[in-house]
Amino acid sequence: MRHNPGVWPVPHTSEEDILHALQQENLKLKTMARLNYHRNNTDSALNLGRDNLLECLRRERELRVQAQDMVCNLAIQAKASLEQQKSEILKLQMKLSILSNRSLRSSKYNSFDRV
Q1: CB 3.0 to 4.6 Å from 52: which of 5, 33, 68, 91, for a disulfide?
Q2: Which residues contact 51 (CB under 8 A, 6 or more apart)?
Q3: Is residue 55 within 8 Å of 28, Cβ to Cβ?
């Protein structure tokens, strides 16, 4: 994959994979927060749980932004690829038209030669 200036290279990770990883990390951090709360049942455990949950939410936002950036970059790359393909198709159509016109002219000249 060529790197376009201003466009991040996109790893082969789907948005679903990112969201699944995010949910797993979210679940892990929530579980850690619950375990800490039940183990200690103190204000420090509550603070740690809150901190873990806040960290989880921060990481979730961060991953969502990354996922959105990846989707935007994929859309930009797809559009650029489509434009390039359109340009190639137009070039091929022009070549085909030129060859077709030559073929028609050639067949006309050949038919005059036979008369």
Answers
A1: 33
A2: none
A3: no
